[in-house]
Amino acid sequence: xxxxxxxxxxxxxxxxxxxxxxxxxxxxxxxxxxxxxxxxxxxxxxxxxxxxxxxxxxxxxxxxxxxxxxxxxxxxxxxxxxxxxxxxxxxxxxxxxxxxxxxxxxxxxxxxxxxxxxxxxxxxxxxxxxxxxxxxxxxxxxxxxxxxxxxxxxxxxxxxxxxxxxxxxxxxxxxxxxxxxxxxxxxxxxxxxxxxxxxx
Length: 200
What we know:
Elements: H1 13-32, E1 102-103, E2 116-117, H2 124-130, H3 133-140, H4 145-153, H5 162-172, H6 190-197
Helix pairs in contact: 1-6, 2-5, 3-4, 4-5, 5-6
């Protein structure tokens, strides 16, 4: 199953993400000798009315993943309905441990090899709308798994993105790697975000 297949509403969205993060953790342990804990990013601590999403310690250049990319305008023919509201970046990450990282997959479903930099396109507005404690409470207050999954997974539009879309598009926007559903695991912070999602 491809990453995109797991993003089509079919009920196995959260189990697939748990499987993906467990597989990643096993690879770290068995192939890289990693012996530490598997970290997760509790985004509810960084998305509050008084916080500045981009100033979160997660994006620190020394102890975190590095920050946003510089602002890049979208092409003039971009469909206005596909623009992530409040996007602030889109360029190559210029600081932190992944500033020189080379992404080779994508964009979208391409497997042809397309070496390029790691990009981020923060949307503090989008993160605030879908990653705050209020969004977590909304998911946890659902009466059954079907509605819980629907709130987490969201729908096909930005207005119905759900918590999961808040992570992808709050960090990836339009031009960031995490906004590319085929290639989002290359986004470095995606796995810590997904691990928190699987704790629900």
